[in-house]
Amino acid sequence: GAVVSQHPSRVICKSGTSVKIECRSLDFQATTMFWYRQFPKQSLMLMATSNEGSKATYEQGVEKDKFLINHASLTLSTLTVTSAHPEDSSFYICSASWGLGRGEQYFGPGTRLTVT
Amino acid sequence: KNEVEQSPQNLTAQEGEFITINCSYSVGISALHWLQQHPGGGIVSLFMLSSGKKKHGRLIATINIQEKHSSLHITASHPRDSAVYICAVVGADGLTFGKGTHLIIQP
Question: Disulfide-capable partner of B13 in A82, B4, B17, B99 (CB 3.0 to 4.6 Å)?
Answer without folding.
Answer: B17
